[in-house]
Amino acid sequence: MLEARKLSLDDRLRGATVEIPAGRVTAICGPNGAGKSTLVRLLAGVLTPTNGEALLDGTHLQDMKPRERAKAIGYLPQEPQIAWDLSVRNLVALGRLAHGGARGGTWQGPVDAALSALSLERFADRPVSTLSGGERARALLARVLAGEPRFIIADEPFGSLDLAHQASLARYLRDQAEAGRGVVVVVHDLGLAHNIADRVVLLKRGDVLADGPPEEALSPANLTAAFGIEGTWLGEPGERVLSVRAQ
Amino acid sequence: MNRPNLTLLACLLVAIPLSLIAGRAWIFGQEQGTALVIIADLRLPRALLAVTVGAGLGAAGAAMQGYLRNPLADPGLFGIAPGAALGAVLSFSFGYAASGWLLPIMALTGAGGAMALLALLAGRGGGIALFTLAGLMIASLAGALTSLVISLAPNPWALSEIVTWLMGALTDRSWADVALAAPLTLIGILVLIRAAPALDALTLGEDAARSMGVRMDRLLALLVVGVGLTIGSGVAVAGIISFVGLMVPHLVRPLTDRRPSSLIVPSALAGGLMVLVADSVLRGLPLVSELRLGIALSLIGAPFFLWLLLRLRRGGTLGLT
Prior knowledge:
The structure holds two protein chains of two kinds. In chain A, 32% of the residues lie in helices and 26% in strands. Chain A has nine helices and twelve strands. Chain A has helices at 36-43, 66-72, 88-93, 108-117, 133-146, 163-178, 190-196, 214-217, 220-227, and strands at residues 2-9, 13-20, 25-29, 51-56, 59-60, 73-76, 151-155, 182-186, 199-204, 207-212, 231-234, 241-244. In chain A, the strands form three sheets. Chain A has a six-stranded mixed beta sheet with strand order 6-7-8-3-9-10, sandwiched between helices. In chain A, strands 2-1-4-5 form a four-stranded antiparallel beta sheet, covered by helices on one side. Chain A has a two-stranded antiparallel sheet with strand order 11-12. In chain A, strand 9 and strand 10 form a beta hairpin. Chain A is globular, with a radius of gyration of 18 Å. By secondary structure, chain B is mostly helical. Chain B has one domain (3-313): ABC transporter involved in vitamin B12 uptake, BtuC, CATH 1.10.3470. Chain B has twelve helices and no strands. Chain B has helices spanning 3-21, 32-68, 80-93, 102-122, 128-151, 156-166, 175-202, 206-211, 216-238, 244-252, 264-284, 293-313. The A-B interface holds A 41, 44-46, 65-71, 73-77, 80-87, 90-91, 94-95, 97-98, 101, 127-129, 140, 143, 147 and B 69, 197, 200-205, 207-208, 210-215, 257-260, 317, 319-321.
């Protein structure tokens, strides 16, 4: 279990308490500036909290060796960068770094598995600059999967993707949760969050406003409290669409 | 060893004996005894020193370009070479003639001072932007202090010594210089190789690298030590040689898979080859006095840099995505 206990960072996040279980997709939602990215970066161990604790199975992330933490928690940053024009296989193989990289011996297997999990086999030897946005997003997620982490944290992976690629990426994340991993996704699109998540954590101004199944956490009352909008959910669970009344 | 490395190593192994032949005095026209002296005492140490200095510049350039994720970065930009130069120039004011060891030791001290300052300023946060700014600041401070020392030179003789030395050359170097620079450069390159996996991770940005278990402060320390040893010892024995650290990684990058880690060793080999060839060619040129190596490489390097800028303007990627 990955936990945030009264986690704070300056005034960007103010005492957030969240539990991330394995085998579930948890969506982090909230308006701009609510502290979504800050929360997931603290949970990934990329930032150090000013107060409170980020814990993995009861151990402080700060007390863990960076490599041990990296083996357990895979993180896909918002607006990911790929500076050098690596081949897709070499990009994905970076996910084995905490395991010792090429020196770690068994990197080929997990890299091939990650490539195949995201249907990237036929791109494996292509330079990443030749990939489309959707393919690139998959390659970056494959890098995280290659590390075989127990928790996957993705900060707005859907941002730049068209609907078809959003759906397939959501499917891949779902598969990972079903394989027993804990999946945390920051999602801007509330409909998408509603439909892909088992649980939604709704943040507002650095605090947790609601935490529960999508039907509860994203209730119209909570949407009004967090975003100041009047919304109604249409459709059936799993195919929800948010209708927002014009102000 | 992979193919680019083997090819470069083979070229180097061919170039070293060839460089022993070339020079103002061609080796074949000499008596056997004279030829042996020329080779053993002058040309062999000079060739090995060229390879050492070039290898250090190439490896440091590859590492810095990887760290800054910028194919236009030159290791000379970050204060360590100017720091070493300042130390060396100071030694002239203290009477260089007094001891042949004073100059390299003061140059290494200058490099060490610049490294310590760089680590102090950019260390804790370990951010790349801070590192770049701190490096540029140290470079300009060291440059200003060097100018000050030059302007206060005790006599015209010292002034001319300083200016000539700053231009960078491998003329009249001895085995003592090789013994000083080669081990330090080798250690520096090994330190940079150790930093290489973290440089690969940095391809995906600082946040991703941290999440992959990279300690940015440790990476910075490895780079400061690695670049400090390679560049510092290079300046200590050869003065300022610019642009090799910029050019070599570029020329080598297309031969590799573009991971920063796969660039360091071939850049070291190619850097050694480039400086060795340049120095040998200059030695053979029929000029009144030998063209200084540092000047010659800058004359090649600056247009090369402009050509890279033009390529970037025309939409070239220089190995970036």
